[in-house]
Amino acid sequence: EALLGQPQTLAGRHIVVTSGPTHEPIDPVRYIANRSSGRQGHAIAAALAALGARVTLVSGPVTIADPAGITVRRVETAREMLAAVEDALPADAAVFVAAVADWRAEETATRKLKKAAGTTPALALTENPDILATIGHRPDRPLLVVGFAAETDDLLANARRKLDRKGADAIVANDVSSEHGVMGGADNTVHIVTRDGVEAWPKLDKSEVARRLAAWVAERLQGGDT
Ligand code: CTP
Ligand code: CA
Question: Where does CTP bind (predicted)?
Fold first, then answer.
């Protein structure tokens, strides 16, 4: 609805967005996953498209609808998500909103693990690739690389560390301690952490965070000060 009437400040730009969780299989019926509805990532993809960007949305398994007018690549695992993002490049900007599982089972059983009296299976884990860090450190990286940091403690310090470690230009820091009800809820209170400092945004619903972030991305790309 908001498509008409908005200045097309991202016309001609290609932007990649990751959203949702990843699912890391343990066996044919079980998986490891993060809690993520995909609402924030999908809303950001839609808001960027509303400003005229060509958007590739790389989404893990979610139950919400695909945003209209956007190319959606559906993936299950972190490794598939990384491959789909690399496939979508080049891009002018990339926004990594997905709640990627940090670990996967070292081995995926091809047969369902069965219960046996008196024993529990030992689950050996291995680390998944960091998609944001991989892209953030590529020599041909997008001009603007934005990540999210969901934290329950030391929000801004952790966000700042992630900015440096992952080679991002901005981290949207999100307090997900349970009293804020962010997970699965409508509202978000975020801070934008860049090398220039910290911008505190008021409590906004996720679509409003998305619109503001899309406008922020447009401004940064236009300013060329990335
Ligand atoms: N991210 C990613 N690939 C991963 C893990 C995280 O692309 N394997 C991205 C997320 O999409 C987000 C940012 O990195 O934009 C921060 O994710 P987060 O889980 O907060 O950071 P981690 O580095 O995994 O640290 P931790 O979970 O220990 O806080
Ligand atoms: Ca993580």
Answer: 102, 112, 129-132, 148, 162, 166
The verdict on whether 34 is a catalytic residue reads yes
Say yes or no to pLDDT of 49 above 90: yes
Residue 36 tokens, joined: 């993520």
Taking the CA of residue 127 as reference, the ligand 1 atom at the shortest distance is 8
Backbone angles phi, psi at 185, to 5 degrees: -90, -175
- Determine whether domain 14-110+124-223 maps to CATH 2.40.170.20: no
- Counting from 1 in the atom list of ligand 1, the atom nearest the Cα of 102 is 8
Strand pairing category for 54-59 and 14-19: parallel
226: closest CA among 125, 110, 92?
Answer: 92
Q: Which two tokens stand for residue 29?
A: 């019926």
Ligand 1 pocket by Cβ (under 6 Å): 18, 78, 96, 98, 100, 102, 128, 130-132, 147-150, 162
- Tens digits of per-residue pLDDT, 13-33? 999 999 999 999 999 999 999
The model carries a pTM of 0.94
